[in-house]
Amino acid sequence: MHPAFSVIFLTTLIGAGQGLFLALFTSQFYSLANLLHSPQTAELYAPGSLLALLLLGAGLLASFFHLGHPERAWRSATQWRTSWLSREVIVLPAFMSMVMLYGIVHYFGWTQTLFVISDALPVDLSLIIGTLGTLLAFALFICTAMIYASIKFLQEWHTPLTLINYTLFGIASGFMLAAALSAWMNIELVAFFGAWAVIATLLALLTRVISLIRNQRIRHKSSIQTALGIRHNHIKQSTMGFMGGSFNTREFFHGRSDSALKIIKYFFILMVFVVPVALILVSYMIQSPHLPMLAFAIQFLGLIAERYYFFADARHPQNLYYQNIA
Amino acid sequence: MQDPVDHNDAGQSGVEVKNTTCYMCACRCGIRVTLRDGEVRHIEGNPAHPHNQGVLCAKGASGIMKQYSPGRLSKPLLRKKNAKRGESDFEEISWEQAFGIMHERLAKIRAEDPKKFALFTGRDQMQALTGMFAKQFGTPNYAAHGGFCSVNMAAGLIYTIGGSFWEFGGPDLERSKLFIMFGTAEDHDSNPLKIHISKFKRQGGRFISINPIRTGYSAIADEWVAIKPGTDGALLLAICNEIIQQGLYDRDFLVNYTNAAELVIDDQKSADHGLFYPAEMHYEEGCFDPQNKLWWDKELDIAMGTHTPGCNPYLLGDFTLDDGTAVKPSFQLLKERMEKYSVEWAESITGIPAETIRRLAHEMGVTARDQKIELPIQWTDTWGNEHDSVTGNPVSFHAMRGLAAHSNGFQTIRTLGILMTLLGTIDRPGGFRHKAPFPRPIPPCPKPPKGPDCVKPDTVLDGMPLGWPATPDDLFVDDDGEPVRIDKAFSWEYPLSVHGLMHNTITNAWRGDPYKIDTLLLFMANMAWNSSMNTSKVRDMLTDTDDNGEYKIPFLIVCDAFHSETVAFADLVLPDTTYLERYDALSMLDRPISEFSGPVDSVRIPVTEPKGDCKPFQDVLIELGSRLQLPAFVKQDGKRKFRDYPDFVINYETSPGSGIGFLAGWRGKGGEKFLKGEPNPKQWEMYANNNCFFQYELPKSYQYMRNWNQGYLEWARAHGMTRYAEPINLHLYSEVLQKFRLAAQGKRPGKQPPERLRKRVETYFDPLPFYYEPLESQLVDTREYPLNALTQRPMAMYHSWDSQNAWLRQIHTHNYLFMNPTLASEKGFADGDWIWIESPHGKVRCMCRYSEAVEPGTVWTWNAIGKASGAWGLSPKANESQKGFLLNHVISEELPPCESGKHLSNSDPITGQAAWFDVRVKVYKAEDSESKQSWPQFKPLHRVPGMDKKRGKWQNYVAGLFNAGKKS
Amino acid sequence: MTQLALVIDLNVCVGCHACVTSCKEWNTSGWAGPMVDQHPYDNDPTGTFFNRVQTYEIGTFPNMETVHFPKSCLHCEDPPCVPVCPTGASYKRKDNGVVLVDYDKCIGCKYCSWACPYGMRELDEYQKVMKKCTLCIDRISDESKPESERKPACVLACPTSARLFGDVHDSDSEVSVAIREQGGYQLMPEWGTRPANHYLPRRKTRLQLHKDELERVDNPLREESLPAAEGETLDDIAF
Ligand SMILES: Nc1nc2c(c(=O)[nH]1)N[C@H]1C(S)=C(S)[C@@H](COP(=O)(O)OP(=O)(O)OC[C@H]3O[C@@H](n4cnc5c(=O)[nH]c(N)nc54)[C@H](O)[C@@H]3O)O[C@H]1N2
Ligand SMILES: Nc1nc2c(c(=O)[nH]1)N[C@H]1C(S)=C(S)[C@@H](COP(=O)(O)OP(=O)(O)OC[C@H]3O[C@@H](n4cnc5c(=O)[nH]c(N)nc54)[C@H](O)[C@@H]3O)O[C@H]1N2
Ligand code: SF4
Ligand code: SF4
Ligand code: SF4
Ligand code: SF4
Ligand code: SF4
Ligand SMILES: [Mo]
């Protein structure tokens, strides 16, 4: 597939936004459950939510660049019964409003306990909103990922791994960002977020490597033989019927050489996994407030490359029909 | 969006539908044009039209983009005073000025030496008018595309069977069982051929294609036989031989309808050697074969007149007549000739396995013999025999330029005619069928002028500019046997050049050999590009000057509808209309769209107004003819006779009162007659009311065996299609050729070839078919240049016309040189590499493409996709000029010097057919350092006055609007 | 239910592109138009077409086939392009099974084109909406046209009648009969899209020759003079 930067930004930005929100809420949950002892935790939620919202908003904005008719974007909410894209379009704003509410609630400190569950968990408005937000964040992961994973003949994408990777990348980058944010705000959650970020990143490494291996070994169900309905081992297109290109030659090809793709692959493995994890470890050891920020920045850059690769790696069966000009 | 069910054309206002005839190519399909507010909304095939039955082709369906092309001219143009030729630097002038210039110049030429005016036309359909204009002017220097197109096809078959493929006849696929196609990529009857091949296949017919390349039609052949270019003669001879050896020929047919049994004088020493023994009998002289020939009767073992009732002659044997003359039936001579042509011999030449050749011969012979067709149609032959049925042998053939465009094409095609004759398939169901006005006598009656005296100042040409020589005395040569025409047609160099040699005109005129001319008028011919061989050099000749700084070809007038490469070289440009803007007659006098079942002709009637100052070329000729006072265009008192072309078409008669005019339908005062009859003032309306065509269906009994069908021949004579109702026996043995050979041998009185040409004429004018290697291969080092280079017609492009067409050019934007991957990898070419293709005459840089569909000794490309930068309304950066290439640069218009002459045309030595496909080449990789651009490149042309301004990046066409649809 | 479709006979398609341009010509000024051309007179011209004709080479020289392969929307019975559309712009008509795009609703998100395994949809780069073969819906439903012309432009234009049009759900229709009798098949059956359009494969006609066909008594060579007898014969010497 041709990697579309609008979509790459959309998915990486909202992924980080979702992850950040999850990180915030996780920390709130932990502290509520008294698993985390940090007096300043609450200072993080409002700005954190704002940052998440900004990311989500930026993602949304990026997505508009993908549309031919952004002015009609509202129409895309109508087909939620069948279209994952439509569902995403519904869930994204719903999630964004939760994030916003979450931030507002924290900003104004409307966190009076409403009731207590099992004598241990005091429930307040933020917890309810946070829980709903969490559900929506996961729903959004599912919707976004399913846009890709549901297309069954894009076999590189049509796997639960797409969903898992997607979610883990969002979580990893979100926690990484939370770590960076805490480091920047000088809140003692750096280690907490950093640790989770590392865990998520390592898990993502595992699942992404599995998917890379899977994709490398994929046996495509469609072949030139099934595309034409002609059985012969030696079939070659002599002309695709036009010479100056078409939508089909532009939208479904990455147009890069295999070696360039390989470089991108190693680049993202380094940038998404190796470097950030190393940086977090180092920052843990030297207690640097800057390294987590660098870690996030590098990981985010890596994720853009990863998403690029994700697109480029997917071989659309339509390409079987567009192989030669003459 | 509105529901399409409620939103369709039915609800639109301002909609009109008009019929006319397509001219996106020479196929002449009937079309229906839907206009919305006067602008073209849609062009579709006219379902009521006999020719295309409602279907279209890619070009026909893109007519809109031709009509509105920004490459169109719209103003008469004069080269600016100080501008150089070739740079397309023009000023706009009025038609009055243009006519003034032409009148002055041409009147002077006509008064001094009419041959100094030469009129050559390309792929047009108006030879009836242009040829008549030339004759009236008095110049013999006229021809159309035929000589560089497929004259070998016309001559090879017409001199053998009295009709031909091309636009004159074709395979009866409706009834055929086995169809063999030689060297055809697309051909003129584009749509009819496709309709019929498809029906044929669906009926279970077997289709074999013989071609070095498998594209287009060959793709759907049941069997593809890959042949080395230029070797079909060898294949056909071996097949004929096998058919004769196996006795698979149709003996009855040969005896009755060909000269197979006729006795030929077999005496090397005699001046009549190789002529038919003339029996003593009275016959009228005419352009037909007199029946004064003899057969040798088996029963009585004596000679007797042909077609003597009850006589069953020998086809084989040698006999001695009472007067001691040794004679043989011509079939015996043919059989002897064939004996050396074994299938193994043919394998070594054609590259086709001997087994395959043998099988092909058997398939043809057995199918012809065992699947006989018998139709319950009574008919009477010219000898008075009545037949209860029409029978046929369902093996049919088609062939075109793959055979024609080689310098051995005439003999190859004659061999094909002989094969079809052996199988008994001429004008019979399931075989080859004629289309009116064919069959015609062998050869047809019109003759070229006889000598220099036929050209006189202010006088109509004595003779036809083009004709059909039957003997050496019909040649158009001076007392030294040298040519009178600028293209040297009808000279001893190319005696049967019945369509002229347009491809040598510019070179000859430039060199002044045989003489210099003053004015060259090119109509619809892109001679500075794809219809010239040696294009780069020809372009130089057009701009070359003599010592006084005068152009060697002093005045060049070009009539074109588009900004073609040739327009750039013109001194005067005449902007023509498109086919949707003018009247045309697709006349019985030229090449009508006749069906097997009878004559059909058709017309164009304008559906829109001419763009700008465009004027139909026909009107231009009529205006010029009137101003020049050419007899046919003015009345006794010198006043003009015809208002314009439509008026001319109605009122012109080939001679006063002849009743024959351009259109055959609805003649006679009230339209009650056809073919022959007085002018009918309402003729155009009547065509318009009949979907723009006239069709006459012959009675069934006249539809077959027309060479010998008494009823038909008499009908044809009565309706002015033929002069005689004599049988047209097939020339298995060609006495016509033998007459030229005897002259070359110095054995007979009359016109004699110059010494240097004696051997050449003697060699190639063989009355029996034979194979020789194409001339170019004989003269160049084929080890240095081991490959054959070919072009093919793409179905979606017409010659150079269509790069200005926004839709068609997306299909063929540039071209590649296709080659077999084994050849490519031998040369170290990767698919798509930039390479050089080089012949002994020139070289071209282009890109290569792998293809399994080509014989490894052949490379090929689509014809005329490559264009000169800036021409055709395209940007100078367009792919056509930057990646596309024109193969013509490597094809020479002249042969390397040899004993027969220094400047012989690269053509068939019999007909002067341009040998496009003879070129030998080598290929090698372009250096990495070379630019990734095709070569040669020419200085970009710029737009000329009257052209639309450059179109933008987007084009959104809706019924005449160019920027429909909103951009968001 | 009616399911209109094309059946394309690869056995007779000569790759002439008539269907390509006749499609553009009809549709650019019709309901589904305009169909843009980009750089129409410049380098690398490109544009919207609903139908393309491609060519494939099967096998290697000399045992090879050249196959011309026309390609337009297959009007799948289970079209994956439709449910993914977030706006409902892509839809399959209930009355005749034609898959269409409503340009007024389309937001140009291209998702449907990703979801078509065949690459049969093309985004119009000027109008920024998705376009595709409409089966000439505004021709086939135009009741003012005679029945014989209520067919897609490409079908009417095709000189080899390689394009059949009709209802594949009506088992007596020309298209159903052709599919049944001539081995009509669907493209990429592995995805369960159930294309309504079908393709008919190449079929070969061969001739079987028997040896005795070349050795017959009516061989015309026998009519020619047989070698004359010379000298003694058994009749002269044997009793
Ligand atoms: N679409 C379209 N139609 C056209 C034209 C056009 O430009 N475009 N031009 C029109 C004109 S003017 C003409 S003359 C006709 C010509 O019609 P065709 O004769 O069909 O035209 P070509 O493309 O020259 O085809 C020549 C074929 O012969 C093959 N060939 C070449 N050499 C040999 C050989 O030695 N032996 C054999 N067996 N085959 C050989 C080539 O591979 C090619 O397939 O087409 C007419 N129709
Ligand atoms: N290498 C190679 N060269 C070949 C051939 C080949 O097979 N290989 N084939 C040869 C053959 S068979 C032929 S017939 C020739 C064809 O050669 P030509 O007939 O010379 O070439 P065309 O490209 O048809 O273009 C003739 C001119 O007609 C113009 N034209 C188009 N429509 C109109 C109109 O309505 N009115 C006027 N006045 N002009 C119009 C075009 O703009 C163009 O400039 O090419 C020959 N050249
Ligand atoms: S074959 Fe020629 S005349 Fe017929 S539709 Fe095509 S371009 Fe027009
Ligand atoms: S119009 Fe017919 S023959 Fe021509 S390419 Fe299309 S389907 Fe094939
Ligand atoms: S071919 Fe593609 S666009 Fe057409 S219905 Fe099927 S999936 Fe949709
Ligand atoms: S591009 Fe248009 S038709 Fe396609 S999915 Fe998006 S909105 Fe629907
Ligand atoms: S059915 Fe109509 S829209 Fe579809 S390819 Fe044919 S002409 Fe084009
Ligand atoms: Mo031609």
Major sheet of chain A: size, sense and barrel closure?
2 strands, antiparallel
> What is the tally of beta strands of chain A?
3
How many strands, which pairing sense, and closed or not: the largest β-sheet of chain B?
A: 7 strands, mixed
Low-confidence stretches of chain B: none
Most extensive interface: pair and counts? Answer: B-C, 108 and 88 residues
Mean pLDDT reading of chain B: 96
CATH superfamily of chain A: Formate dehydrogenase/DMSO reductase domain
Order of the strands making up the biggest sheet of chain A? 1-2
- Tally the helices of chain B: 26
Please state the overall shape of chain B, judged from the principal axes of the Cα atoms.
globular
What compounds sit in this structure?
ligand MGD, iron/sulfur cluster, molybdenum atom
| Topology, number of strands of chain B | 35
Termini separation of chain B: 16 Å
Q: Can you characterise this structure?
A:
The complex is a heterotrimer of chains A (326), B (968) and C (239). Chain A has 326 residues and is mostly helical. Chain A has helices at 5-32, 41-64, 84-107, 125-149, 160-185, 190-217, 224-228, 247-251, 258-286, 291-313, and strands at residues 113-117, 121-124, 235-239. Chain A has one domain (5-325): Formate dehydrogenase/DMSO reductase domain (Formate dehydrogenase/DMSO reductase fold, Up-down Bundle), CATH 1.20.1630.10. In chain A, helix 9 (258-286) runs antiparallel to helix 10 (291-313). Chain B contains 26 helices and 35 strands. In chain B, the strands form ten sheets. Chain B has a seven-stranded mixed β-sheet with strand order 5-4-25-24-23-6-7, covered by helices on one side. The model of chain B has no long low-confidence stretch (mean pLDDT 96). Chain C has a single domain (4-200), classed as Alpha-Beta Plaits. Chain C has six helices and eleven strands. In chain C, strands 10-1-11 form a three-stranded mixed β-sheet. A two-stranded antiparallel sheet of chain C has the order 2-3. Chain C is elongated and about 110 Å long. The chains are: A mainly alpha (326), B alpha/beta (968), C alpha+beta (239). The interface between A and C is large, with 57 and 63 residues. The structure holds ligand MGD (2 copies), iron/sulfur cluster (SF4) (5 copies) and molybdenum atom (MO). One ligand MGD binds next to helix 4 and strand 24 of chain B.
